[in-house]
Write a structure and sequence with these properties.
By secondary structure, the protein is of the alpha+beta class. It has eight helices and twelve strands. Strand 3 and strand 4 form a beta hairpin. The longest helix is centred in the first third of the chain and has 25 residues. The model has no long low-confidence stretch (mean pLDDT about 95).
Length: about 325
Amino acid sequence: MNKANNAWPILSYAAWKDTLATVHLWTQIVGKIRLRKMPWLNHSWHVTLYISPDGLGTGSMPYQHGIFDINFDFIRHRLRISTSNGASEEIPLEAVTVADFYRTLFGKLAQLDIDVSIHDMPAELPNAIPFTEDTIHASYDKARMAEFWQAMVKIYDVFTRFRTRFTGKCSPVHFFWGAFDLAVTRFSGRDAPLHQGEAPNMPQAVMQEAYSKEVSSCGFWPGNDQYPHAAFYAYAYPAPAGFADQPVKPGAAFFSKDLGEFLLNYDDVQQSADPAASLMDFLQTTYEAAANTANWDRKHLECDLSHYENEYGCFRQDS
């Protein structure tokens, strides 16, 4: 039996960027299936994927015979489709083109009598190729993909703990396949000005609904060719005056004027003496930067329920 490894994995964008590009498109295909099968939820929360014990999954989705889910297994490297009537199908995760992955996946869905169709164009990506025509992206490095997922597992735990400190409206810790990022978002309860931003193959009305409320958001992103580093980010919308000038922790964190958000490279967290504590410092101080400069009602929006874990330990299996 393998012993649990508590070290945060080393991530190199250059070493896995081809796999990232391919898997990003695979997750978009699965995410668009969730988009079509789920009722619309505020801020597009219905489209997201979730960290699972072995990868990334859709959670339960309705279809004509009950519910089904789709899960990327990055331990055994397979995609699994399961239904509430007991039927299931699997696809090996290996170096195949996006077009082949698309064709195989929809063939398996048809075998399970799951009726669904999606828009055939990737979202939020420049120079996108329709999924059914993409024979360019066809990389899959099992070891690198597993390392990135294991990093997300570590990050998920910290994000989940951070989320408990807020009594106001807060998103789940969830994975947006449009930008391939893991995120959690807090809300002040106030309306936001109409968002004017755009993204490729993203209706502006969808973007405007997603940013219809004032937010402080943070997340984890694998990087791209322009910024070839996995990084944590934190931003506020709308960005209050003075937000960029607020002091944040740890010392390696900085404000990017180009992106309009705070950044902390994953390497700086991974190499720190206590990665979880370093990341929590970043999440907390960047939230405070947003909440303080935007005059959020922090007294009524924040909480500390950790004493319940200590006082009512009889409800915990590890007590």
